[in-house]
Design a protein that fits this description.
Mean pLDDT of chain A: 92
Shape of chain A: elongated
CATH topology of the largest domain in chain A: Rossmann fold
Strand order of the largest sheet of chain A: 2-1-3-4-5-11
Oligomer: homodimer
Number of domains of chain A: 3
Strand content of chain A: 15-25%
Radius of gyration of chain A: 25 Å
Structural class of chain A: alpha/beta
Number of helices of chain A: 12
Number of strands of chain A: 12
Order of helices and strands of chain A: HHHHEHEHEHEEHEHEHEHEEHEE
CATH architecture of the largest domain in chain A: 3-Layer(aba) Sandwich
Largest sheet of chain A: 6 strands, parallel
Distance between the termini of chain A: 76 Å
Helix content of chain A: 40-55%
DNA sequence: TACGCTGCAGAAAACGTTTACAAACTTTTT
DNA sequence: AAAAAGTTTGTAAACGTTTTCTGCAGCGTA
């Protein structure tokens, strides 16, 4: 590939001049500028980013460390972030840690080696092993979706506790007296907070509830909701509503209900959490506690960019509200028992 | 951040020796190796990837250029590719071109500047503007999901025509005599091939069909299927089955049917295309022509890696089979008219 | 005429690696 | 014991940029 040197030679100028033309920095006479531009054109010149990064000590690369790319929530999140950063002249390096702390560390090392200018991370669990690499490399990070208490970083997230409370209250208000809750027992701070909020609401209103929390790393699996619902529905008396702390799990729940011959919502109300686009197109359409997913992404990117380059900037802690979206998968319980 | 120089100083050896230890190349005595390793440890050394890329003339970065990250098909595809490449020591730079030819070009430039070792691209349309950048930079690419005739590259895809034929035949065999087809009129070679295959099957068996193809760039939108179905269902006589050339569109179709008071599948059969995981969890579960999405991703990555570094390697053209998955959204049509 | 500006361009150093080459030892072979 | 071969280490050049510094015109002012 052509280098700046080739251009200089062809245009009959020095390296410095070419560089000045490329970066529109310093003064260069119109005549020479034209020559250089022409030379770039004929040689199909594209600047060498690694060389530039080396010299400038910035890469314009942002690391995005998330658990999974292939599920709606993280997919839209990644997409939103990507769009925002692209517009600002940054590219993203995507890493899906698969809810595995080891991979998380491995990826973090990769990102620091790559000298990314910053990183947006949705931590897998409570493990903090990865964080020290960023700290040491002095790479600013923002935490998204999941809160981690002991780490000096900006945060952008939703009030999960409140969301859980909100979702449960919807069921309470509909008159449900026996509710199933689907969570996960390991990691995922966010989901546990939702659970706390939901339990609080149910407790306050004397509604019986049963929590099912399989010991897995992620609730973003259809089948998990399916299996969990099967368990909950086999109880006597069975719950008249299930609150799955993830939309994806809620979809599994609806499927399980139908497979057991229970109609949604008449025999079983189902409510999810996340607000993925798909929810509106399910049959019945899914009632859910929606997060402003795209906004979450934009905000995170924005907050991060405010910190890259500047050392002194304060850590920001942004909390966005959840919104209850009532659709067709919840209704009043049948009176009969 | 610590550099190789700092390590050398601390360990009391030369730069070359440190480099040899890091890369496990050449011979270095056990004693010195230990010292170097210790120094790296205490300084928290992480090699500078841009510098290394500059010198080695390889980045171990692969560009992934796809239309959208936020929809199930491309999400799983990206995820599969990412996993495969990670295991081989490559990272991916994700670019979602949003079905926009300009952005596609812009992204391609970015990738060549970044000196990626290769790229996997699902082209937006028939425009080839982007291709020349890769060619000029001598960056190997593999085309995925979408075929582009006039371009020298490896390809990994599914036999879309055959898949379309297969899906339509399913409806024919069930006894449908009037079928609606949902496609898109612009771009997307793959989807047009599916349409051709489906029309051929219907034609061969004298089944009446109506094609609805909105003039948009992507069929990966729930609402598109919804709107299209509304149009098709307003016809008299109305079709007893709809074949949506994308699962996402099919979901929109099912929703539209219900909103019109039509039961799926008894009053309207719906079949999709893609085989996204979600399909199995819909109510009713979606019949679809499935692509081996993950395999598509693995294969593409594998084929690409065979070409990076080596100049002479042949272009490969891999076609994977589609598979009809019959679930609950299709059935025989009602006899009454 | 002498002086200091200003605008423009080039030389050269630097960024952090890898690697070809050479030098200094060791070991083996004759 | 000398020569040959091998092992271990260091020096320095190179990768493609950006940027500091310096120099040279040309110009206005005193």
């Amino acid at each position: 590939m052509a280098t700046i040197k080739d251009i200089a030679q062809l245009a009959g100028v020095s390296l410095a001049t070419v560089s000045r033309v490329i970066n529109q920095t310093g003064n260069v006479s119109p005549a020479l500028r034209e020559q250089v531009l022409a030379a770039m054109e004929t040689l199909n010149y594209q600047p060498n980013a690694p060389a530039r990064s080396l010299r400038r000590r910035e890469t314009r690369l942002i690391g995005l460390l998330i658990p999974q790319l292939n599920h709606p929530f993280f997919g839209t999140l990644a997409y939103a972030i990507e769009r925002f950063l692209f517009a600002e002249g940054f590219r993203i390096l995507v890493c899906s840690a698969e809810e595995d702390a080891d991979r998380e560390v491995e990826y973090t090392q990769l990102l620091t080696r790559q000298r990314v200018d910053g990183a947006i991370v949705a931590p897998t669990g409570l493990a903090l092993d990865w964080a020290k690499y960023f700290v040491h490399a002095n790479i600013p990070i923002v935490l998204i979706d999941r809160n981690l208490p002991d780490i000096a970083a900006s945060r952008v997230m939703v009030d999960n506790w409140q969301g859980g409370y909100q979702g449960a209250m919807h069921l309470v208000e509909l008159g449900h007296r026996r509710v199933g809750l689907i969570s996960v027992s390991r990691h995922s701070q966010a989901i546990r907070e939702r659970l706390q909020g939901a339990m609080q609401a149910l407790h306050e209103h004397n509604v019986a509830y049963e929590v099912y929390e399989p010991s897995v790393e992620t609730l973003q699996q259809y089948d998990l909701g399916f299996q969990a619902a099967l368990k909950l529905l086999s109880q006597q008396p069975r719950p008249s509503a299930i609150f799955a702390l993830t939309d994806v799990a809620a979809i599994g729940v609806m499927h399980a209900a139908v497979s057991q011959g229970l109609a949604v919502p008449s025999q079983l109300s189902v409510i999810g959490f996340d607000g993925i686009e798909l929810g509106a197109y399910l049959i019945p359409a899914l009632t859910t506690v929606a997060q402003p997913i795209e906004q979450l992404g934009y905000k995170a990117a924005e907050v991060l960019l405010r910190r890259v380059g500047r050392v002194q900037a304060e850590h920001e802690h942004i909390v966005l509200p959840t919104q209850l979206i009532v659709r067709a998968s919840t209704s009043m319980p049948l009176l009969a028992e």
